[in-house]
Amino acid sequence: LAFKESNSPTDSYAAISQVDRLQSEPESIRKWREEQKERLEQLDANSRKQEAEWKEKAIKELEEWYARQDEKLQKTKVSNRAAEEAFVNDAEDIFPGTEWERVAQLCDFNPKSSKQAKDVSRMRSVLISLKQAPLVR
């Protein structure tokens, strides 16, 4: 056999495959190679199919998440606007002597419903004591 001398890898691979063909494989090995090739192709097809399904599922979940976030945002905007409007309306009704009632409305004196990270129990106790016994000037 005469091979061309070349530096490209494809030529050397072609030469190797030609030598392989000359040394004929036993039937069992050839059959195994074909079965293995079919199995690998089937596994590749299944993995591509599963990847496509995962991508579809991810897109759906992402769209649902964005829809829920948008819905939450709209509800928050509506409630904030209503709270702001109520606060502005209450601010117009300022009379002397109603300061502590306004403070009590603005402060959450229930320690269980408070979701703040800071400990405000001391401030709460000071405000309650001032409400019960106001400072005398």
Automatic annotation (TrEMBL):
Q: Which Pfam families match?
A: Clathrin_lg_ch
> Quick one: where is this thing mainly located?
membrane
Q: Which BP terms does GO give this entry?
A: clathrin-dependent endocytosis; intracellular protein transport
Tell me which UniProt keywords the record has, alphabetically.
Answer: Coated pit, Cytoplasmic vesicle, Membrane
Q: An example Gene Ontology cellular component term from the record?
A: postsynaptic endocytic zone cytoplasmic component
**Alphabetized PROSITE patterns for the sequence:** CLATHRIN_LIGHT_CHN_2
Presence of keyword Membrane: yes
Membrane topology type, per the record? Peripheral membrane protein
Q: Does the keyword Transmembrane helix apply?
A: no
Indicate where this protein resides in the cell: Cytoplasmic vesicle membrane; Membrane, Coated pit
Location of region: Disordered: 1-20
State the family it belongs to. Answer: Belongs to the clathrin light chain family.
Q: Which PANTHER family match?
A: CLATHRIN LIGHT CHAIN (PTHR10639), CLATHRIN LIGHT CHAIN A (PTHR10639:SF1)
Annotated protein name in UniProt: Clathrin light chain
Q: Which organism is it from?
A: Anhinga anhinga
